[in-house]
Amino acid sequence: MTNFEWTSEVPLAAETTYLWHAQPGALTRLSPHWAQEIVEESYPPIAPGSVAQVKTSVPGSYGLVRRPFSSVHSEGPSRFSFVDELKKGPLSQWKHTHEFSSVAGGTKIDDHIEFSMGPAGFDSIDRTLIHNLEATFEARHTRMLMDIEFLERMNAPLLTQKKGKRILIAGSSGLVGRQVAALFSSAGHFVRLLVRRTPKFEYESHWNPELGIINPRDLAWADAVVHLGGRSIATRFTKKAKEEIRSSRIDSTTLLAETMRTLPEAKRPEVFVCASAVGIYGSHAEVPVDETAPAGDGFLAELCQEWEAAAARVEELGIRRVSIRSGIALTSLSGFLKLQTPLYLAGAGGRLGSGEQGLAWVSLDDLARSYVHAVLTNYVRGPVNAVAPDMVSQQEFAETLAAHLHRPARVPTPGFVTELVLGADGAKELALADQKVRPERLEETGYQFAHPTLTDCLEEELGSGA
Predict the structure, then answer these.
(1) Does 15 lie in the same domain as 96?
(2) Is the domain of 42 the same as that of 190?
(3) What are phi and psi of 303, to 5 degrees?
(4) Residue 190 to residues 24, 168, 245, Cα–Cα distance (Å)
(5) How far is Cα 145 from Cα 109, in angstroms, rounded to an integer?
(6) Separation CA 128–CA 125 (nearest Å)
């Protein structure tokens, strides 16, 4: 049996720190993306007998290779403590005790882990795992401090003891939706999720946009409605795919907006925040654009215009509307960065196309935070560009990613290769798009980026490989 100890401090009272860990979404927010992916949090969180399911990364893989790992919770040795113990996973034993105690200026968090890889003779593997745990807990500490700072700026109910808002979220099973839901619930707000499957938990409600099924009482319950649903656009733009992409967004948004219309005025939500994309500006930009720029040409530009118009119907009802025009979310959990990283690690990475195209990117954390900022900041309305202030070209992205991974960036991907994968239209509007976008509205309304530069983002999302 090998022992691992880690101690850190945070500027919150011990009871508050313990309660934060006991909130739905805390595990999602605490977990470095390169270290583990949350499949399903335990519910109720950290309650004895509850089970958390994750995919933990193999050390040295930058989060590209993950193994299933589940743990069951039990009571800890003191008032503010809890334990999670291996239920199923790649280790033979794992017991993690979390304890929170008061110190001057905040809380001391003591993490004690007892683990075993298997029979004797695995010393080198144990040392590797300890090194990985050190990197993981350092990153966990950084993430928690980052979230505490954000919660303070957003006057989180967990910190102020004031009543939280009621947040109804559609599209919560997606990459961004999970983080948005976790940010709200870990802050102490009341979150209800619209799901298409049969609800499993008390905080879930069924809906089916294709069939026009939704319970108006869910919308009447909500102070704010957040909609992030929609079929992935990372595909060949065939006629069928375009129609599915369009209908998944327009039909669901229309259903939400029209259901709000049927409610008595006093029962309507205060704000509707709906997803959109920087694709509204088209696939070619001569100069950087902000939210005042006109829409461009192409399928995505037309789609986003129609999408935002469907969301804007709620303004006739006196409901504040925000459309989050997101850039490419960079994360090791999915999407562009996850697809590119293996190529670079193999020495086959490089720019896409000419490399001169602007890449409108944003970290997953900043994209999720932009939704929370939009809901809780009363004077945010209309279109909001959720992109990082650090504008880069495809060439600059390639060089920065290669430097982070200590690999060359010498193998450019010609345009015809992306056309083979995405088709001519998909390649033009996605992989080879030239998008230079500024986050003017976010900065004007006081938003502070967690990862303002590409280097910051890559360090967060990929770590050092551990």
Answers:
(1) yes
(2) no
(3) -60, -50
(4) 10, 9, 30
(5) 13
(6) 5
Q: For 418-430, what is the HEC assignment? A: HHHHHHHHHHHHH
For 33-78, what is each residue's pLDDT tens digit? 999 999 999 999 999 999 999 999 998 899 999 999 999 999 999 9
State whether 129 and 211 are in the same domain: no
Cα distances (Å, whole numbers) of residue 169 to 26, 119, 173, 274: 17, 47, 10, 10
Residues 38 and 128 in one domain: yes
Residue range of the domain that includes 130: 2-153
Tokens of 125: 């593997």
- Measured CA to CA, the distance from residue 342 to residue 357 in angstroms comes to 22
CATH number at residue 111: 3.30.530.20
Q: Do β-strands 328-330 and 361-363 pair in parallel, antiparallel, or remain unpaired?
A: parallel
The whole-model pTM stands at 0.95
- Predicted confidence at residue 353, as pLDDT, reads 85
Q: What is the pLDDT of residues 163-191, one digit of tens each?
A: 999 999 999 999 999 999 999 999 999 99
Question: Buried b vs exposed e over 320-349: b needs ≥16 C-beta within 10 Å?
Answer: bbbbbbbbbbbbbbbbbbbebbebbbeeeb
